[in-house]
Amino acid sequence: MEWFEEALHPSLTQRLSMDRILFREKTDLQDLVIFDNRIFGRVLALDGIVQTTEGDEFIYHEMLSHVPILAHGAASRVLIIGGGDGGMAREVLKHPSVSAVTMVEIDPSVIELCRTHLPSISAGAFDDPRLDLVIYDGAAFVEETNDRWDVIIIDSTDPLGPGEVLFSERFYRGCKRCLVPSGILVTQNGVPFVQDQQVTNSYRRLTPHFADVWFFVATVPTYQGGQMAFGWATDEIAHRATSTHAIAKRFQTAGFETRYYTPEVHVAGFALPAYIKILLA
Ligand code: AG3
Q1: What is the domain extent for residue 193?
Q2: How far apart are CA 107 and CA 8, in angstroms?
Q3: Are residues 27 and 94 in the same domain?
Q4: Residues with CB under 6 A from ligand 1
Q5: What is the CATH number of the domain that holds 8?
Q6: Which of 64, 87, 221, 274 is the most exposed place for a label (fewest CB within 10 A)?
């Protein structure tokens, strides 16, 4: 039996059995493995870190899409940076209010390989006429585009390899430039119990650019180490304070079902445990 060993931290690894390996190769940019595991189903790992699994991807993708879109209340244009597996686009496109999604992915092989080996993750999103797929460096894109969006979702890897620039202050400034005034930026910010620097750094780099910077949390089994933190940045302070009742009405109007996201989980997600809150001090 072969094992996939993830070393998220020099003092912590997690092992997943590779019951069947479908693909293992270096793309031009990253080291990519796709394998089957009896607990999680099909797994995608990049540069030695699990990115998504058929079994638990819904938690991450639902939280990072529906929280900003429903908090915004009238999001029609959404920008996704990264997200090559297509799971984020799939969730965003469930919103009837969303008329246009731009997805900027740097590594075209991730898209191709996920479409072939993990089709249930994108579930048709790449064929949706509202999706505009751009193969480009996300950091350069936000500095160059003349378009503006209501919600920007950073569906990135951790700050290693090609994903590193997506955690820089310069990138956050670029994102701010591409948001409409009431827009919301959300980010993948790692598992703070193991990677507290990700939260500290992003908080420090986001606060110069936005009136409200905060995090919300969810627990994703394959992202070992407890709760994952998602960054939240907007100039519209009312968005984070939207009541459960108002969110529930918007969710009902949107008219689709979820497996993790609920209006209660949405609002509760902003309640940070003290060990995370202290990282923002
Ligand atoms: N990208 C986020 C992977 C985070 C892994 N980090 C960790 N385990 N601390 C997910 C991409 C899904 N579209």
Answers
A1: 57-278
A2: 22
A3: no
A4: 8, 49, 51-52, 60, 83, 85, 87-88, 155, 157-158, 188, 190-191, 195, 223
A5: 2.30.140.10
A6: 274
